[in-house]
Amino acid sequence: MHVVVPFSADRPKTRLSAVLSAAERREFSNAMLADVLDALAGVDAAFDTTVLATGPVEVDATVAVDDRPLTTAVNDRLDSTPTAVVMADLALASADALADLLDSTADLSIAAGLGGGTNAFLARDPAFRVDYHGASYRDHLAIAEDAGLSVREVDSRLLAVDIDEPEDLAEVLLHGDGAARDWLVDAGFELDIGGGRVEALRE
């Protein structure tokens, strides 16, 4: 099995620009990537991991630099070998949640993001191809159905939460326990609970 972790090394997390500078977004993205790689390392299964990055990045894993659009870059990695794709911004991902996905024997095991994107999947049949745009989860289910593939939908909040918007940072502070949470705390973020909302605000 091969696990691919796409990572934007050049312009990461632009939707966090309201609360983080470009340099901070790079640091925070690296911390989330480290958390995802740590979670994968805790899975009791044999697989190779490749960080599919748009530019050079220093991590304890094989790095393949590919600056093509995500759909093209990922599809070129899908072949006869069972291949999983796990996004690099799943700061809450745990080894158990990932193991549940990777242990599946379905042709396609897939986990949705809260916004309708595709946060992680394992394809055991090369007939599956990706098409990342907008709410890609439904599109990927349709692609699998058209190809006659068996599908297992993985219902996991830990895999559903991807960190894209400023309001997502509260999830990391509330439920995270890794490098991403540590980075936010060191950067001066703390939870603000009031007005019926929980937010991550900077001191």
UniProtKB/TrEMBL annotation:
Guanylyltransferase that catalyzes the activation of (2S)-2-phospholactate (2-PL) as (2S)-lactyl-2-diphospho-5'-guanosine, via the condensation of 2-PL with GTP. It is involved in the biosynthesis of coenzyme F420, a hydride carrier cofactor. The gene is cofC. Coiled coil: none annotated. Pathway: Cofactor biosynthesis; coenzyme F420 biosynthesis. PANTHER family: 2-PHOSPHO-L-LACTATE GUANYLYLTRANSFERASE. This is 2-phospho-L-lactate guanylyltransferase. Homodimer. It catalyses: (2S)-2-phospholactate + GTP + H(+) = (2S)-lactyl-2-diphospho-5'-guanosine + diphosphate. Belongs to the CofC family. The keyword Transferase applies. It is an enzyme of class 2 (transferase). Keywords: GTP-binding, Nucleotide-binding, Nucleotidyltransferase, Transferase. One of its GO terms (molecular function) is GTP binding. Its EC number is 2.7.7.68. It comes from the Archaea. One of its GO terms (biological process) is F420-0 metabolic process. SUPFAM superfamilies: Nucleotide-diphospho-sugar transferases. It comes from Halolamina litorea.
